[in-house]
Amino acid sequence: MKEQIITMKKTTSTNPARSGYVNVTSGSADLGSYLRKVNAYRSLDVKEEKEIAQRAKDGDKDAKKELVQSNLKLVLTIARKAIHVSKLPMVDLIQEGNLGLMVAAEKFNPDLGYRFSTYATWWIKQAMFKAISEQSYCMKIPVYIQETLSKFSKIKSEMEKSYNCQITNRDVAQKMDIEPEKIDLYLSAYSSTVSIEGSFEGNNGSELNVADVLEDDNTNVEKNVEYEELKKEIQNVISTLKEREQTVIKMRFGLEEFTKTTLEDIGKMFGVTKECIRQTELRALNKLRLRMAGN
């Protein structure tokens, strides 16, 4: 949906496809102006939303615009919660959430019988956490790790407040029913980085260059080529499935732009039960096995 709805100027992304809407920079005055514009849009009742969503599904651009504008406050609500686990400015989080909201407006099917906000929430969170993963750190951190650590941080804070003492990561991991080593591994992804041209003090007090202590492993070109070819083959085979089957398989196995997602979460996105998604997955996998066997 390329028409203007309401936007902000991002502070970190230079992708021209992500600019537009009403300009707002990271300044408090501009952000305040944006918030006033968003709050001016009224929410839709159930009947209005269903009618507008149906028109949007039929290709009415004005209806899609109205559907998005009436839910911009939902993006703000989610952004206020996500800012606590993000190094991105609020402006960027809101912008990414708006993009997720626009995707939801494109894909929403009002015939499924649930509210648009329920459907859009998943897409908004996915867009925000994807941006946090790609733009906050020097390496890409999967969304499911960020969500796990967000829950970890919340539980640890609650335990320390309850017991009035410092709680170890191991204690929190046990409460979450997760292996402590896995939590430590996830936390290591957020370690601070140093420049390869920098230096640090060794154990004996001498100064060492970072480049001098890095392990120099030769890249296995052959394995990389085989991996890329395998990815292409998988994409070609999956493309023979129906659209929903493709999406379910990609989300279940974390393929392409998707992260690994549970049956329950996929069911919520499509507005169906977990069992329905499980049947779709089994049906799709059977089709893939038959096609691979035929080759």
Explain how this protein is built:
This protein is mainly alpha-helical. It has 3 domains: 16-135, Four Helix Bundle (Hemerythrin (Met), subunit A) (Up-down Bundle), CATH 1.20.120; 143-211, Arc Repressor Mutant, subunit A, CATH 1.10.10; 236-294, Orthogonal Bundle (Arc Repressor Mutant, subunit A), CATH 1.10.10. Helix content is 62%, strand content 2%. It is built from 14 helices and 2 strands; from the N terminus they run H-H-H-H-H-H-H-H-H-E-E-H-H-H-H-H. It has helices at residues 28-40, 46-57, 61-69, 72-82, 90-107, 116-135, 143-163, 169-175, 180-188, 210-213, 221-238, 243-253, 263-270, 274-294, and strands at residues 199-201, 207-209. Strands 1-2 form a two-stranded antiparallel ribbon. Helix 4 (72-82) packs across helix 6, helix 6 crosses helix 13 (263-270) and helix 7 packs across helix 8 (169-175). The longest helix has 21 residues, at 143-163. The radius of gyration is 23 Å and the shape is globular. Mean pLDDT is 75; it is low at 1-28 and 192-196.
Succession of helices and strands: HHHHHHHHHEEHHHHH
CATH secondary-structure class of the largest domain: Mainly Alpha
User: How many strand segments?
Assistant: 2
Uncertain ranges: 1-28, 192-196
Helix content: 55-70%
**Gyration radius, to the nearest Å?**
23 Å
Q: pLDDT average, as an integer?
A: 75
- The CATH topology of the largest domain is given as Four Helix Bundle (Hemerythrin (Met), subunit A)
Strand order of the largest sheet: 1-2
Count of helical stretches:
14
Beta-sheet strand percentage?
under 5%
Measured distance between first and last alpha carbons:
39 Å
Summarize the biggest pleated sheet.
Answer: 2 strands, antiparallel
Q: Number of folding domains?
A: 3
Gross morphology is globular
Class of secondary structure makeup: mainly alpha
| CATH 2nd-level architecture of the largest domain | Up-down Bundle
